Amino acid sequence: VSGGLAILLSLLFAALILRPVRSLTHAAQNMANGDFSQRVKVREGGELGTLGETFNQMSESLQEAESLRKALTADIAHELRNPLAIQRAHLEALQDGVFPLNRENLDLVVEQNQQLTRLVDDLRTLALADAGELALNKRPINLTDICRETAARFEPQAALKKVTLVSNCVEGPLYAIADKERLQQIHDNLMQNALRYSPEGGWIVLTLSQQEKWGVFTLHNNGPQIPQEALGHLFERFYRGDKARDRASGGTGLGLAIARKLAEAHGGTLSGANHPDGGVVFTLSLPL
Question: Which pTM was predicted?
Answer without folding.
Answer: 0.66
